[in-house]
Amino acid sequence: MIQGEEAKKLHPTLSYLVQKQSLVVPLIAVLVAFLIGSVLIALQGVNPVGAYQTIFNAALGSERGLLRTLEKTTPLILAGLAVAVALRVGLFNIGAQGQLIMGAFFATWAGFTFTNLPALLHVFVGLLAGVIAGGLWAAIAGVLKAYRGVHEVISTIMLNSIAIALLDYLVNHPFKEPGQALPRTVPIFETAQLPKLGFVPVGFLLALLVAMFISWVINRTTAGFQFNTVGANKFAAAYAGIKIKYIVVASMLLSGGLAGLGGAVESLGITYRFEPAFNKGLGFDGITIALLARANPLATIPAAFLVGVLRSGAPSLQFDYGIEPEIVDLLLAITLLLVAAPILGKLIFRKYAKKSETISSGWGS
Amino acid sequence: MRRIRIAAGISILALVLAACSTGADQADDSNCADAEVFCIGLITDTGKVDDKSFNQSAWEGALAAAEELGGVAKYVETVDSKDYANNIAQFTDKSYDAIVTVGFLMAEATVAAAQQYPDVHFIAVDQFQGETLPNVTGLMFPEDQAGYAAGYLAGLMTKTNKLGQVLGLEIAPVQLFAKGFEAGAKASNSAVDVTTVYHPPADNAFANPVWGGQEARKQLDQGADIIFAAGGGTGNGGLIEIAKDPAAGESVFCIGVDMDQWNTVPEAHPCLITSAMKLITPGTTQLLLQVADGSIAGGNFYGQTGIAPYHDFEDVIPDDVKDAVADVVAGLKDGSIQTGVTL
What we know:
The complex is a heterodimer of chains A (365) and B (343).
Chain A: H1 2-8, H2 12-19, H3 21-43, H4 48-60, H5 63-88, H6 96-113, H7 119-148, H8 152-172, E1 196-197, E2 200-201, H9 202-220, H10 222-232, H11 234-239, H12 244-271, H13 282-292, H14 300-321, H15 327-340, H16 343-349, H17 358-364
Antiparallel strand pairs in A: 1-2
Chain B: H1 2-20, E1 39-44, H2 54-69, E2 72-77, H3 84-93, E3 98-102, H4 107-116, E4 121-125, E5 136-140, H5 143-157, E6 162-167, H6 172-188, E7 193-198, H7 209-221, E8 226-230, H8 232-243, E9 253-258, H9 261-264, E10 272-278, H10 280-293, E11 299-302, E12 305-307, H11 319-334
Parallel strand pairs in B: 1-2, 1-3, 3-4, 4-5, 5-11, 6-7, 6-8, 8-9, 9-10
Antiparallel strand pairs in B: 10-12
């Protein structure tokens, strides 16, 4: 805590900012990204203020816009949590996408396979199927890591491709909707559909609860303490008697389960069927979100909301100004670059800058 | 010093991006609620309006109609396939008169929106309407006829008696092109052998130029000397690969699809003898004008197909071949020649 003591010599406000830099840096990164983005927008001959207004108006200005934004935010929170949980243990789960689509498919499968279940139970079974599918998929990487030392970055990336190919096969052959040229499953039964309360999808509330629960687990339980300890220094953790192999597998199981839940919520709440074109890139957005949130479970909520707002407002940007909607990906990419590379923190806080914590540790082992 | 460098880096990046950007201005649609002003909205199914084939031709048709009517045309490119309904709603919210949904993938979203907004007329490009709704017109094409004419030409031009086809997703319009091509080739040259490959089902089936190039290469290696590449960006990849062959334009040729790809894929000039065209642009314009004057009917409307000019290969293709192909095109048009293709 040398940094904390040094910080006390500073002006109280400054010292507060230095202590809260894991919050300050992402906020400034977003601001800077929007500034750079405004230059890019202005160069296309469009007023950036108007453009940003359009995005936020479209995403938040009407009930339909809010519903769309929250629908987009929901799987992003869960995917962000998935990556964040693994980061706590020092694992970089690049495979959230594969786990998410496994969850999306198996939730759908439960949704169209079981008949005559009461609505509440059917939804629960669907969500559970998604969690299990995602969790087991990630656990493969966890076991390989724990018992064979296979780097999780490599194995999860490969498992992404395997998941895509496997699901391609499943929706093209055994589970293909008859008489359809497109590869997709039949729709789920109505009993398996997650409802909406006005403009709030039930899945969103579920995601909020899960984020709070994960935050509690990580910060307030023995399991969470073990996660953090292994992430901070696995040798010290092993010396302290923590079963590292067990923690690695358990954390991947949890991480994948969260990603799978993200896919399940999407299938049961929005798409009502599985199609390989759905759920595109959600797991990769989860990486952005987890890094933006600095692996803090509760912070994934605002981070996911930001991404959700940008994605939900982007089509209107093209509608009103004719700018390619991909400009929002540019904004996110710039934000991520600024957060992930420790440039910004050093630029602002100089010698008081914290060394970036959780983000880099996943690569060392 | 470091900050200056960062600032310089950022401004260079900005300039590069600005140079690349199109900065297309969207039209002013504030008066669309006015009955006098005819407003046309167009939505792509995850493609781009400058894709040099399918979406671009529909968008050009919408622009032509807007110009003729003194109206407004605007487009939205879909990024996320879950957004179809939302993108349609952007237009209906502003009281657009006609909405063009481009592509097979939007079929269900289009019908759902048509039921929700009975006052708006939908032009559904490439979407067969099994049930007739009064406010949806499916713009369909007899792709088999364009494929047949192109295949007839290929059958006469081939030296190896081996033809190839590199295709997008195996859906009705692509199958019609492919089966028409094969039927046409067999009609002009009974000894011909046609190798056909469809992109495996995936959401990039029409946007995978790398795969298209690889498959075209394989077919060339197996002795095919004329290849029909039909499948958006996937097909374009095939055309470009064939154009790179040392024998391109002498003993190896390629055939494009949808538009006259001579104009849209200049990289294919070395090999591109013709393109099997769907006249989407005039079809879209015609239907939109019908919406404006009230004569439009629901159900399916069949547009026209054809084959593109030979351009630089005008002198390479023998006159008797050109005459024979012209006869076939005329015969297809007046119905005296049937392709015999069924799905």
